[in-house]
Amino acid sequence: MTPKRSNRRLLALLALTISLQAQEVPRSWSPDPQGGPPPPRGWRGGPRIPLDGYDPATANFTAPWPATAGLKGNAITKVIEETPATVSFIYESLHFRIQSDVAIRPADLTRIATILESCFQAHHDIPLNNRRTRSPGAPKLKVRLFETLERYRLSGAPPGTVGAYLGRSDELAVPLESIGLKKSGSSYTFDPNSDFHVLFHEITHLLWADLGQCAGTWMSEGFAEYMGCLAYRDGRFSFAQLPSSVLTFATAHGEKGSNGGRALGKEFVMPDLSDLMTLSQEAFYKNPNNNYGYGLLLVHYFLLADGKGDAAKFKACIKALQSGQSADEARKILL
Predict the structure, then answer these.
(1) What is the pLDDT of residues 279-304, one digit of tens each?
(2) Collapsing DSSP states into helix, strand and coil, what is residue 288?
(3) Nearest to 101 by CA among 185, 191, 173
(4) I need a labelling partner for 21 at 20 to 30 A (CA). Which of 74, 147, 226, 298 fits?
């Protein structure tokens, strides 16, 4: 992944910011006390994440970053149960168990499973050693689908969301519209041009739940935002435009055809890194729009611009966390 020339200035400024802050330059930013409500406390925390069958010998930190990733063809699915009387509709693909509150047509089920399995494969292939995709003995990952946004929210999903990873039950919960299915009369139509940012963001939380917030909310949310910016088409992800997409999403909002964005603007001051990296969940979510944008840019920096551009520190941080080191110890690797 190579950033365009027009984006290199921002990466250079981020590098300068990090270099200066490492020299303990006084901070010039403080969290905005205003902002949207944070998700309920503990919603990212949950049960022990099963990694049955994971072999450290299969760790992937050295493979080249792929230009594309995903499936070659469609995911294979099967019907486990369809019982209208009890509103129980359960389906499975290779790595996912999908529970819905409405029956899903075979063609739509294939599309949904292909998106999920493509995400699974993409996280497996990038050289950051995702352990959940390397745990062949673990149970299938759980996904709950809801016919409407109202049903999704009545289920206990975090207020104001349109999709979420629920740490308490270790499952992904999304309304059908967030996975590309839009109701048309009495049936559904799949829209390949849907905005999948939230879906890809929350799947990232699901697939990296073994680390959770261990490295700090900035890293968990920043990396999920990063993967949410991926371009997807017919079971394949393209990393070619990811640098440009990330910078546009972080700095703009709805400009140049972008879907949404964090709207940091063309000029902004990055927060003190030690402060950002140690923000609690509650503090981070008090100023979500800015902090998500800062986290996204910081992850982008560590993956592409730090050192030789080989994500060495970011990988070392993940290695440290996976080996059981504390968040403080892992954070020191980055700073």
Answers:
(1) 999 999 999 999 999 999 999 999 99
(2) helix
(3) 173
(4) 226
Do 172 and 140 contact (CB within 8 A), yes or no?
no
For residue 18, is pLDDT > 80? no
Q: φ and ψ at 171, to 5 degrees? A: -150, 155
Q: Which has the closest alpha carbon to 188: 178, 198, 196?
A: 178
Sheet containing 96-100: order of strands: 78-83, 88-92, 96-100, 141-146, 171-175, 164-166
Which phi and psi angles does 36 have, rounded to 5°? -70, 165
Burial class for 208, CB neighbours closer than 10 Å (0-12, 13-18, 19+): buried
In three-state secondary structure terms, 96 is strand
Sheet holding 236-238, edge to edge: 68-70, 236-238, 231-233
Q: What is the Cα Rg of the chain in Å?
A: 20
Pairing relationship of beta strands 96-100 and 141-146 according to DSSP bridges:
parallel
Residues ≥6 apart with Cβ < 8 Å to 257: none
- Summarised one tens digit per residue, pLDDT across range 164-179 is 999 999 999 999 999 9
CA 147 to chain centre: 23
Q: Which domain holds residue 154?
A: 5-334
Domain total for the chain? 1
Interatomic CA distance for residues 112 and 104, integer angstroms: 10
Please state the pTM of the whole predicted model. Answer: 0.86
